[in-house]
From TrEMBL, chains A, B:
<protein>
    <recommendedName>
        <fullName>Kynurenine 3-monooxygenase</fullName>
        <ecNumber>1.14.13.9</ecNumber>
    </recommendedName>
</protein>
<dbReference type="GO" id="GO:0019805">
    <property type="term" value="P:quinolinate biosynthetic process"/>
</dbReference>
<keyword id="KW-0521">NADP</keyword>
<dbReference type="GO" id="GO:0034354">
    <property type="term" value="P:'de novo' NAD+ biosynthetic process from L-tryptophan"/>
</dbReference>
<dbReference type="GO" id="GO:0004502">
    <property type="term" value="F:kynurenine 3-monooxygenase activity"/>
</dbReference>
<dbReference type="GO" id="GO:0006569">
    <property type="term" value="P:L-tryptophan catabolic process"/>
</dbReference>
<dbReference type="InterPro" id="IPR027545">
    <property type="entry name" value="Kynurenine_monooxygenase"/>
</dbReference>
<keyword id="KW-0560">Oxidoreductase</keyword>
<keyword id="KW-0496">Mitochondrion</keyword>
<dbReference type="GO" id="GO:0031966">
    <property type="term" value="C:mitochondrial membrane"/>
</dbReference>
<comment type="pathway">
    <text>Cofactor biosynthesis; NAD(+) biosynthesis; quinolinate from L-kynurenine: step 1/3.</text>
</comment>
<keyword id="KW-0472">Membrane</keyword>
<keyword id="KW-0662">Pyridine nucleotide biosynthesis</keyword>
<keyword id="KW-0503">Monooxygenase</keyword>
<keyword id="KW-0274">FAD</keyword>
<dbReference type="InterPro" id="IPR002938">
    <property type="entry name" value="FAD-bd"/>
</dbReference>
<dbReference type="Pfam" id="PF01494">
    <property type="entry name" value="FAD_binding_3"/>
</dbReference>
Length: 483, 483
C-alpha cells in the first residue's frame, strides 16, 4: 500500500507533474509568473476573508488571476473582533498548503507550538502520555487562529492581483452568469460585480451554500450534536512558564464529556469544556460549577482558580457544534464551495482548517490540469472532494468518542500498542488511523478503508493465534497423557 | 401486539379520550362549539394553502381559533394553476383526518377510485395481480390533487373563523414574537401581522423551514435521489372505458426504472416514468424514446400511441425527487412545521399527503390535551413526530426498490404469500408492512420495527424447519440402512 496517497490523486499530464513537484520543493514564488501567462485570466470573487478564503486569494493571485475578497466583518487586523477561538492544530495537509505560499515556517517554527501527543488527566491527577507518532516523531502544531488569519490576509494583500473588501456582505449571487450583489455595510449601498468564478469560503453558515440550496439536485445536511462547549483559559504558571507540559494536547476524558487544553505562545492554555447541553444546563450557579470542577477536574480547578473559572464561565454562553455535509460542491456554471462552507465539521479531529486548506491545494491542481477551464475544474472538484469531505466529517464525530471515552479503555490502549509496534516494523504498510489523517495526505475515505482493513487483519490474526494456542495446548495435553 | 397503534399515542386525560373517540365516531361538527369555548383563542397563521395547510385551517377553525391562511399562488379554484400532479393515493391516515371534517365520503365514495392492489406488467404484456389486503379487502383510493385541494379550501372558507389570503408571499417571520411579514404579490405592498401560532405548511421548499435553519440546534437534510420522473397520460379506451383495469395501481417494474399508472375519474390514467437521470438523458429524440418504449413498455406504448407519447414526453422536463428530514419541527416559541415542509418524501409509499394529514390529527390531539398551551403542544409535537417522519421518509425510499425491482423476485413473492397466510390466521398479530403503513395508524417507527420482528421470526422459523427436515432425512436414511 502506498503510504501517502494524495486526496487529489488525479491523473495529471507530465508537464503538470513536473510543475506540481517543483511547487512542492521550492514554493510557488519561483514559478508563478510562468504559470499564469499561459492561462485565461479570470476575475475570481472569494466570499469570506477567513482562513480558507485568504489562502484561496493567495493561490489564485499566484496564478495571475484577478481576485476580489468580500468579507462581511471589519478587517480583523485592525479591530481584533474574531468570534471563533478554539485554537487550531496544524498538521500535514495544512502545512503543505501554507508551504506553497511561504508561510509554513512562520507557523510551524516561529509561532506554532509542537504537540507531540495527548496528555490524559485522570480525576486523581494521574497523567498518561499518548505520543501521536512514536516512530517518526511527527507532531501537530497549536496555532493561534487570529494570527494565522492576519498573516494570510497580509500575504494576500501583498499581491497586486488581490483586492480585499471588508464590511462587504453578499446579498445575492447569480451562479450561472457570474454576478455578486454586495452590500457595503458602512454606507449601506449595494453594487453588482461581474465575477468569472465565485468561491464560497464563507464558513459554516455560508450565504453561497444557501443560494445553492435553492437549486435542484443540491444535497445538504446540517446536524447539530447534542453537546455544546464553553471556552476557558488557564493562565501561565510560575515565572510565566507553562503550568503543565507545553508540548501536549491535554485531555480530561470523562466518558460523556471532557475538557481539552491547547498551549499558547504566551504560556497560557486555551481550554474548552465539551459536554451534553443537559450537563451544561445543570451548571447554573457558582456553587454547582465549582462542585462539578472539584469532582471532575480538580487539577484544572487548581490551575485556573475558582474565581477566574466562575468569572470566565458565566461570561459566556455555551456554543453549539454543527456538522455540515453537502454534494456537489459546485453549482451553476461559476460557483464553488470550499472549507467550512462545504464541510463544516465538529472540531475533534482538528481537521476543519487542514481539510479546508487541502481543498485549495486540490482546486489549484485542477486549475493547472484543466488550464483554468471552469467547466472541468468545478465538476472534477466535486467528484474528487465531496465523498472525502463526508468521510472527515464522520471521522471528526468518531474522534469525540475516542477523546472523551475510548482513550481510557484497556482495549483501546492495547490496540494503540499493537498499532505502534506494527507501524515500527512495517512503517509503509501499517499506518495508524491518526497518522493517516494528520501526517499524510491519504484521502479521508482511504483513511477509513485503511483502518477497516487493519481491524480485519487483527481480528483474523487474533483468531489464528487463538487456534494455534489451543492446538498447542491440546497437543501438550495429549502428550502428557500418553507419556 | 396491538393491531392499530396510533402514531399520536399520547397519554390523554379521560375527558380527552371521550372527546377523541366521539370525534372519530361522529365527525367534528357536533362537538366543535363546546370544545372551543374552554380554550384560549389564538390567531393562527398558516403559511401555505395546499392540502395540509387547508386541512389545518379547518381543524383550528373548528377549535374556535381565528385562522389566516397565506398562499403565494393565486386561488387554484379560479385559475387552475396547479403544478404538481402525481395522483394521490388516499389511505387510512388521510381518511381519518378527512372524516373529522366530513370530507371522507366525498373523497372515498364519490370521487375516489378504489385500487385493490398492484397490477404488474411484464415486458411480454403478461399481467400479475398483487392484492394489497386479501384478508380484509382494504383498498387505497386514487384521488385528484386539484379536486382535493379545492374541496379543502371550500371547507375552510365556509368557516367564519378562516380568512384565505392568496397571492400572499411570506418574506419574513419572527418565530419568537409571532409575526409574519407578507408581500402582496398583486399590489407589491408588504404588511406585518401578529400571529400567536405560525404553521409552516408551505411544502418541500418551505420558507418557514429556511427561517428555522438560521437557528442553532435545528437539524435538517435535503437529499435529491439520482432519479427523476416525467408525467404522461393514458387516454380512456373504447366507449370511454378504462383501457386497463380501473381498480389497480399499474406498475411496469424494470429493475432500475419503472412506470406506474393510477386511474382517473374520466377513465384515463395518469402515468409516470421514474428513471435514473442518466437513463432519461439518453431519451433525447423521438426515435430513441419510441425504441425505449417498444423494448420496455410495448403494451403501454400501444395504449398511449406513439404520437401522443412523443408530444407529451418532450413537452415536459424531467422533475426531481427530494427527501427532506428535519428536527425538531418547532422553533422559537410560536412556530411549527407540518406536511412536506417538515418531511417531504419521495412518492413511492404514497404517504406524503397521508402523513401530512396525520400531522394535523396529532397537532389537534395535542391542542386538546394541553388546552392550547403552545409551549407544551409544540415541543410534544416534535417529540412524538420527528422520528416517525424520518421513518416514513426511509420507507418511501425503500418502496421505490420494492416497486421497480423486488416485486419481480421469487423470494419477494414467496414472502408475500407467507405474510398473507399468516395474516389470515393471526390477523391481529401478523400484519404485513404495507398494511401497517396504509391500513393502520401504527407509528411509522413501529411499522419498521414490526417488519424487522417478522423477518427475525421467519428466519428462525426457516432455520428450525431446516433442522427438523434434516433430522427426519437423517433418521429415515439411518432406518433404511439398518433395515
Amino acid at each position: 500500500m502506498e503510504r501517502v496517497v494524495n486526496a487529489c490523486s488525479i491523473h495529471i499530464r507530465f508537464k503538470s507533474i513536473v510543475k506540481a513537484s517543483a511547487v512542492k520543493q521550492k514554493g510557488f514564488s519561483e514559478l508563478e509568473d510562468t504559470m499564469a501567462d499561459s492561462e485565461h485570466k479570470l476575475h475570481v470573487g472569494i466570499v469570506g476573508g477567513g482562513l480558507v478564503g485568504a489562502l484561496a486569494a493567495c493561490y489564485f493571485a499566484k496564478r495571475g488571476h484577478s481576485v476580489s475578497v468580500y468579507e462581511y466583518r471589519s478587517d480583523i487586523r485592525k479591530e481584533k473582533l474574531m468570534g471563533q477561538s478554539i485554537d487550531l492544530a496544524l498538521s500535514t495537509r495544512g502545512r503543505e498548503a501554507l508551504r506553497a505560499v511561504d508561510l509554513e515556517d512562520a507557523l510551524v517554527n516561529q509561532h506554532g507550538i509542537a504537540m507531540r501527543g495527548r496528555m490524559l488527566h485522570g480525576k486523581n491527577g494521574r497523567l498518561k502520555e499518548m505520543i501521536y507518532d512514536s516512530v517518526k516523531g511527527n507532531c501537530i502544531y497549536s496555532v493561534n487562529r487570529q494570527y494565522l488569519n492576519e498573516i494570510l490576509l497580509n500575504a494576500a494583500e501583498k499581491r497586486p492581483e488581490v483586492k480585499l473588501h471588508f464590511n462587504s456582505k453578499i446579498v445575492d449571487a447569480d451562479i450561472d452568469q457570474g454576478k455578486l450583489t454586495i452590500l457595503n455595510m458602512k454606507n449601506h449601498t449595494t453594487e453588482e460585480v461581474n465575477i468569472d468564478l465565485i468561491i464560497g469560503a464563507d464558513g459554516a453558515y455560508s450565504t453561497i451554500r444557501k443560494i445553492f440550496m435553492k437549486r435542484p439536485l443540491f444535497n445538504c445536511s446540517q446536524i447539530y450534536i447534542e453537546h455544546g462547549y464553553i471556552e476557558l483559559f488557564i493562565p501561565s504558571g510560575k515565572n510565566n512558564e507553562f503550568s503543565m507540559s507545553g508540548n501536549h494536547l491535554h485531555i480530561w476524558p470523562r466518558d460523556d464529556f471532557m475538557m481539552i487544553a491547547l498551549p499558547n505562545e504566551d504560556h497560557s492554555f486555551t481550554a474548552n469544556l465539551f459536554a451534553p447541553f443537559k450537563t451544561l444546563d445543570k451548571l447554573k450557579t457558582s456553587e454547582s460549577l465549582i462542585k462539578f470542577y472539584k469532582e471532575q477536574f480538580p487539577d484544572l480547578l487548581a490551575l485556573i482558580g475558582q474565581e477566574k473559572l466562575v468569572k470566565d464561565y458565566f461570561e459566556r454562553q455555551p456554543k453549539t457544534l454543527i456538522s455540515i455535509k453537502c454534494k456537489p460542491f459546485h453549482m451553476g456554471k461559476r460557483a464553488i464551495l470550499v472549507g467550512d462552507a462545504a464541510h463544516a465539521m465538529v472540531p475533534f479531529y482538528a481537521q476543519g482548517m487542514n481539510a479546508g486548506f487541502e481543498d485549495i491545494l486540490l482546486l489549484d491542481n485542477l486549475m493547472e490540469k484543466y488550464n483554468s477551464n471552469l467547466n472541468e475544474v468545478l465538476s472534477k472538484f466535486s467528484e474528487l472532494r465531496c465523498n472525502d469531505a463526508e468521510a472527515i466529517c464522520d471521522l471528526a464525530m468518531y474522534n469525540y468518542i475516542e477523546m472523551r471515552h475510548l482513550v481510557t479503555k484497556k482495549s483501546f490502549i492495547f490496540r494503540r500498542h499493537v498499532d505502534t509496534i506494527l507501524h515500527k516494523f512495517i512503517p509503509n504498510t501499517w499506518i495508524p488511523l491518526y497518522s493517516t489523517v494528520h501526517f499524510s495526505r491519504m484521502s479521508f475515505q482511504e483513511c477509513i478503508a485503511n483502518k477497516k482493513w487493519q481491524d480485519k487483519v487483527l481480528q483474523r490474526g487474533l483468531w489464528c493465534l487463538g487456534t494455534v494456542l489451543t492446538a498447542i495446548f491440546v497437543l501438550s495435553f495429549t502428550k502428557i497423557n500418553f507419556e
